[in-house]
Amino acid sequence: MTTPSPARETAEHPIPADRISELYNGTVATAQASQVARERIHWMCSRVSGDRIIDIGCSQGITAILLAREGFEVTGLDSHPEAIAFAAEATEREAKAVAARLTWDQRDLYEFADEALFDTVILGEVIEHQAAPERFLKAAQRLLKPNGVIVLTTPFGLHPHEDHKVTLLPTDVVRMAEASSLEVTEIEVVDGYIRMTARNLASGSVATPRAVDELLRVTATGALAAQERHYTLMAQRGAVVEARAKEIAKHTATISKHSATIAELKAAADAGAKTLRGIETELAKAGADLARTQSELASARAAEAKA
What we know:
Blueprint: H1 6-9, H2 20-24, H3 31-46, E1 52-56, H4 62-69, E2 73-77, H5 81-91, H6 96-100, E3 102-105, E4 118-124, H7 133-141, E5 144-155, H8 170-179, E6 182-190, E7 193-200, H9 212-306
Parallel strand pairs: 1-2, 1-4, 2-3, 4-5
Antiparallel strand pairs: 5-7, 6-7
């Protein structure tokens, strides 16, 4: 297992680290989001070919680790120091045989060089972070053996994120692949993500263009699914808002009831205070009368004593 150099481990990075391993393990976000991510990662793992794999933009390393558990030799490449540190730490908890199949490299794709080519290149949610995704895809393609496979996923259409630089549809992804001498073997949209596999053609070969009607069908399917998710989410949020409104109304009624009770208690307290003040006044008056009577009695006794 290769880990990043100390100098790179402490380097600053302008973009927060992706948390895909934590999402996969269900420790962040919702259970539904975790399940969607797990299914997408499992799909990528199921599409690899050959023994030597590179996961470009590997993030926290979950895809590479899953493949290493199944006997593949995997290199995880990512420029983010926190991501590679997380992956290296996770590897320490793996069996020795699994850890031995994993190599972590903290560099970007354009820095990376390897004498031996790879059987499969994985690009899981990485090209949308590139302002020039065609150039990035060609750089990744150069790491592939002839007839090697690229496994790619990327958000379908609009997917707001602080570091997403392009919006992609199936047509865009396919045309980029064909421009890089990659022949698309599978293209679909599932759970809001484009999934594509492509084969690296031999030098001089030309990719057979994907049929326009198929790309339109895939795009339409993805768009309809996105609309369905949108309306389902809106309905769920509406139900949550309605439930919270009912809860607030219930609490408001309880507060009103308590406020009325408090007002009654305050009125009773005021009445009690008034009564108490009346009693105190009467007691003071009675005390004064008693003092006067005692004074008069003392005077009478004094007069009798003189007589």
